[in-house]
């Protein structure tokens, strides 16, 4: 290779050469011309970034080709498919293997095929294998495509198989002629300096065996399998000439067939197939020809039947199904289910579209089996007649010609049994929305034999008919016209007093109770939803004392909040008899609930014990953090919906987290039927409000739910709040976290008991041990990066952060452990949550503070106590999270003062997170016992440890 003199004539050529590892490739070269115009031996390999100086011999297509060929240069190939930098000699000598070749080569061939499409009559040469000279032999691309015919000759001992090629009407001799397949993906054959291409998709490996072989022989012993696989596939794709077996071709008019595949307790679907004469095929074939093989043993004759398929027509039938609301469930086998926009299951879709399908030429079949399903129109006729004390709901379910009193479906609806047997023995599938819309109807009817509904449950009729929807509207209008809610005497045995806005919430609970409606208390976090609810429960205990009403209420909440509720109940309503229904040893008999005023359990336990809970009738069912059931298809929602009670309440600072649709399941729990079916709610409210920004619809929704949702923000009740509110949040450790904690605690406790902790060195060892326990109480990953199980405190903090940021408030998060803060950083980074950060290593403190103060989207400030305990003024924050208790309460106070100081106009809520049953709880107790020491003497952890007696240490490690 030499430099090209641009002052002398030169030419751009393309050169095909065989790379020792990557196979045939192509390169662009500039070649200097001799005075007579022939190609000289001086040439230069060019790339997109080096070819510009030769622009005068390039056209637009050359630039495209050179860009494609850049990617075929070995260094660029290595860089693309191998992450680390490596020399080509090392890559091909030590790393490259057949697997990598099989992966890379097809991708390179796709580039080559694009080049060959573009190259036209541009100069193309074969590269010399000896010295790499790019213009060794001139190549020509065949003007016409080549055809291929595969031959099979079967005799008494074997079957011989070989291809013949035809070019320009003549048979082409290519065997034993030094021919080479240069591209395999779509075959290109190099023969006698001509590049041949083919008139149909053909893999090069179909040719390769015959470049130096006349035929392939298959013995009688293996022919059956060979015919079933290889030969069948070949006949589907190519022209085949056979001697010794038959190939027949038939063309039949096709019929589209939908076969109903019923899956009990699962998702039933339709299977699409096409019948051509006696043959049936699944859709989505790549081949216009499908082949069936038949063997006649008596005659020893194989017959291949080629069925010509109309793939365009088949595709139109699939498009027709999709236009009717089906979507592909499995592309390979042609199974379909409804797209979910209008229909819940395949039976609803099929019943609605049956006539249209038959008119379009479809056949509808059932999968063979004992059951025969009714497919036809399914409707519900409902008339509501008003009586003195109830509504008489006169309803009939219509399944084709059969009119069934709706009350006969009661057990099916309540127990979610979809199959209903008609008088003729056919099985009708009850529409899915009937379960969602009418389950509550049957739960509240006065009689099992008639549909009599108490007037107090007028809200249940909203979705049933136009008449009852209007009645529901009048009722809601009356409720909206209430100017004030009656005051209810507070409970006698309640410790503490309710603030005015809390008393209003307490009165609102009783207002709902009087009219037999449920409600959602959606106060901001920190405003005392727990206290208001405990006041109600205590009042219920006192009011129901001498009645026959159900007295036991059920509280369902996230696991992380169980202990906090217990603590609050002990503080405000100590007379309530509590049953904490969690853990492996919980009651298995619902009768046990009757001995308690309040059963406390978790969403997970309700899912597990659904059958147990559903047998009991509660006074109140209360959901805390009720956004947990926002998804109406979730197991949590379905389990909660199976429970029965006189009253229902939901508590959530964020009832709408992501979408307007979040409110539906919570309102459906508290006031079934109020917002109609979920599909109705989506269509009538969610889509207009969220996608069309329809303000009128938003106002209409607000008017409907207004009496049943009470929300007060911190700003609204600011004058009733103290300047600063502190609360301890108790967090349950995860199972694996607790195990790890107990192991470390036992090691240090044993050392203490053995008298090993004495003197200064052992004091330091003890301090290290206590530090380890405190880190484990925060998150085991602080000690072990590979710990996988998570942390109870970590999850609780994230849950509360979600509520706060949804309200648009700002929060300071303090920890004395930088490692702890880094775990939150890592989480926020993965979730793209903005935050400010400050620890001892932060160089630009002012920038971190400015970001938190001025950026509305930066609502979280992670601060290490040593870096941020003093010298900061962060009055933008109205929440302070203290992640771990400090030995010296004065240090905690300094952290709190970052937000609660002069200039703060907001009410500040301080939450201290303590892992239950850990040294953290005991530190808080010790702080209180040694308050005088802590406030006057203690400045460091080491000083505090020195002040501990042997009894104190034993208590810490107990």
Name the descriptors:
alpha/beta, 42 strands, 958 residues
Plain-language structure description:
The chain has 958 residues and is an alpha/beta fold. It folds into 6 domains: 10-141, no CATH class; 147-244, no CATH class; 252-287 and 309-366; 378-468, no CATH class; 482-712, 3-Layer(aba) Sandwich (Rossmann fold); 725-733 and 791-946, Rossmann fold (3-Layer(aba) Sandwich). The strands form 9 sheets. Strands 32-33-31-34-35-30-36 form a 7-stranded parallel β-sheet. A hairpin with a 3-residue loop joins strand 1 (10-19) and strand 2 (23-33). The longest helix has 22 residues, at 98-119. The model is unreliable at 455-459, 465-482 and 933-939 (pLDDT under 50). This is ATP-dependent helicase HepA. It holds the Pfam family Helicase_C.
Summarize the structure.
The chain is of the alpha/beta class and 958 residues long. Helices cover 35% and strands 24% of the residues.
